[in-house]
Amino acid sequence: MLEHASRVFAESTLPNQYATLVCGRALPDGKVEISNAAHPFPLLVNDDGIQPFEISNLPIGMFGSEDFSVSEISLGPGHSLVIYSDGVPEAMDASGEEYGVERLKNQIGRQRQCSPSGMLAACWEDVTRFRSSAPKTDDLTLFVLGRAA
Questions:
Q1: pLDDT exceeds 90 at position 142
Q2: Which residues contact 68 (CB under 8 A, 6 or more apart)?
Q3: Which of 5, 80, 90, 124 could potentially form a cystine with 146 if both were Cys, beta carbons 3.0 to 4.6 Å apart?
Q4: How is 119-141 classified by DSSP, letter by letter?
């Protein structure tokens, strides 16, 4: 799917345009097949804490002929996978300070026992409060996939 998308994107945009994304397929047994096209590393939230799931490929549309690897992780009961756009850690407050990945990880850590929707709401509220009245400079996208306990 990503190889097709990359080819179509490369054929229909300017040579210097590309896109980053994460896509995956969650299976009922907790397995998640995931491919990352140069997007920020998803964060795996499990009993061991919060770790980046360090997988990546080239962005889609770079050359139109890339191969994209697919990795698999397993979410145990109560575990989550947090996917976010680069606009989240790069969000700035009025003084120009960036929100940062560490602040996102700390917020996720405080919400580890919440449902995926509760974790998402708390993270979104924290980013919004941090930005306050500062203008939005990029998209802000957060997604939490969780496995029921």
A1: yes
A2: 2, 3, 6, 35, 37, 57
A3: 80
A4: HHHHHHHHHHHHHTTSPP-S---
Q: Which residues, at least 6 apart from 53, have a Cβ–Cβ distance to it below 8 Å?
A: 34, 41, 42, 43, 44, 71, 73, 81
Q: Nearest-CA neighbor of 31 among 76, 69, 68, 70?
A: 76
In whole angstroms, what separates CA 131 from the centre of its chain?
19
C-alpha distances in angstroms, 131 versus 98, 108, 124?
9, 18, 11
Mean pLDDT, the chain, rounded, equals 94
Structure tokens at 147: 């496995």
End-to-end CA distance of the chain: 31
Q: How far apart are CA 21 and CA 62, in angstroms?
A: 13
Q: In a 3-state reduction of DSSP, which class is residue 106? A: helix
Amino acid present at 15: P
The DSSP secondary-structure symbol of 96 reads S
2-146, which class in CATH?
alpha beta
3-state secondary structure of 8: helix
- pTM confidence score: 0.92
